[in-house]
Amino acid sequence: MTDIQYTFIKSDKKLIKLHFDNILFIKGLGNYVELFTTKNKKYIYYKSLKELIDKLPDEFMRVHNSYIINMKNVDRIEDNHLIIGQHKISIAKSYKDCLLRSVNKLLL
């Protein structure tokens, strides 16, 4: 199986191609999600975070009930927050151990 590096999402009655590397994070809004990209664009579409996490590549990780982040785009971790560009995202206690285990594998 080949590694697919992009996906399509349906937003504003359009199918939009998105490369996974360009996704900063995804914020849950009930039955919708808001997807933030490296090009300062936001897309809102109908899908739950729970449905989404199973379809995303391994570098995507749930860090809060309302957030999925792309580890490739995390700039730093400060206390209980992730900094991704200009965004500060809370890390929920229930997801922190899993996140730290992933980060520890990447430490030099």
Textual characterization of the structure:
By secondary structure, this protein is α+β, with helices and mostly antiparallel strands. The chain has a single domain (7-106), classed as LytTr DNA-binding domain (OB fold (Dihydrolipoamide Acetyltransferase, E2P)), CATH 2.40.50. The chain has two helices and ten strands. The chain has helices at residues 49-53, 93-106; strands at 6-11, 14-19, 23-29, 32-37, 42-46, 60-64, 67-70, 76-78, 81-84, 87-90. The protein has a five-stranded antiparallel sheet with strand order 5-4-3-7-6. A three-stranded antiparallel sheet has the order 8-9-10, with no helix packed on it. A two-stranded antiparallel sheet has the order 1-2. The longest helix has 14 residues, at 93-106. It starts with 5 loop residues before the first strand and ends with a helix. The model has no long low-confidence stretch (mean pLDDT 92).
What is shown here, in short?
This protein has about 110 residues and is an alpha+beta fold. The chain has one domain: OB fold (Dihydrolipoamide Acetyltransferase, E2P). Helix content is about 20%, strand content about 45%.
What key phrases describe this protein's structure?
single chain, about 110 residues, alpha+beta, OB fold (Dihydrolipoamide Acetyltransferase, E2P), 5-stranded antiparallel sheet, 2 helices, about 20% helix
